[in-house]
Amino acid sequence: MATEREVLEFIIVPPFEQRAAVAAAKERFENYLGNRFPGYSFRVGPFAPVGDEDEFCVLPLMNFVGDDGRSYMCTPPKRWFLQEIAGACKQFDVTSLRHFAA
Question: Which pLDDT score, from 0 to 100, does residue 50 have?
Fold first, then answer.
């Protein structure tokens, strides 16, 4: 019987134009997303040629190691949830301390 688990970690790839600003605010940005979506963790990835270069790309980490040491795939996240995360990324102001996480 396969083990099922929800995706709990996501990699966020910023738009090409915002890559330097997001990298500079990386820790604050990751904390902001973690506070917006409790129970999930986020990592800022380097710019990669994925998705639309003008939008944030949300990449779910789909695999995990089960108790038996074997690798399993997580249940894919719903599209609306990925869009909600991308929307929260757009709302983040990289130049402000408005979303400063203490």
Answer: 63
- SS3 labels along 28-64: HHHHHHHHHCCCCEEEECCCCCCCCCCCCEEEECCEE
Gap between the Cα atoms of 45 and 13, Å rounded: 5
Instruction: Please give the backbone phi and psi of residue 56, each rounded to the nearest 5 degrees, phi first.
Output: -70, 140
Please answer whether residues 74 and 63 qualify as being in contact, where contact means their C-beta atoms are separated by less than 8 angstroms.
Answer: yes
Block residue for tokens 């688990």: 5
pTM of the predicted protein model: 0.82
At residue 73, the 3 state secondary structure works out as: strand
CB-based contacts of 3: which residues, under 8 Å, 6+ apart?
Answer: 66, 67, 72
β-sheet bridge partners, residue 44: 12
